[in-house]
Structure formats: C-alpha cells, structure tokens
Specification:
By secondary structure, the protein is mostly helical. It has one domain (2-78). 76% of the residues lie in helices and 0% in strands.
C-alpha cells in the first residue's frame, strides 16, 4: 500500500480499496496494465505521426469514440478526420 500512497498519490482509503481489489480480483489489475500499455502505444504512434498538432485533438478523439475495445479504438483513431 505504500507504493499506492506514495508513488500513486492515492489517499489511504483509496490505497486500501485498491489493495482489496488486487487481492480479490487479480485479473482486474492486469486489465488496467494492459489498457495502460495499449493507450501508451496508441499515444506514441500519434506523437510520431502528428505534425505539431495539439494533444487535445487526440484526447478529444479518444473521448468521442467512447468505451470501445482497444482494437476498435485503434481503428477509430486511424479513420480519416480523426487525429
């Protein structure tokens, strides 16, 4: 819990709840990690292809797409008219 409080900057109650979720549902944290890595990859790809476009365009496109599986989100972000 020290890591969650000091590195993750979580309040003590949130750190305790996170620990309980990890213990009781360990695959949930794996899903979060997988999503984190996938978003990181998509964002890096955007940065490599964007010609000084502001980040908010990419963020807006992600939020506009809504709750999609990562493969569909990637396809949505690669559509024309989408940063």
């Amino acid at each position: 819990m020290r890591f969650a409080r000091e590195e993750g900057l979580l309040a003590p109650q949130f750190a305790t709840n996170l620990w309980q979720r990890v213990v009781n549902s360990p695959l949930q944290i794996t899903d979060y990690f997988t999503g984190y890595r996938a978003f990181g990859r998509l964002y890096r790809e955007y940065l490599e292809s964007a010609d000084d476009e502001p980040t908010y365009l990419w963020v807006d496109a992600v939020l506009r797409a809504g709750p999609l599986p990562m493969t569909l989100l990637e396809a949505e972000l690669n559509r024309p008219n989408t940063p």
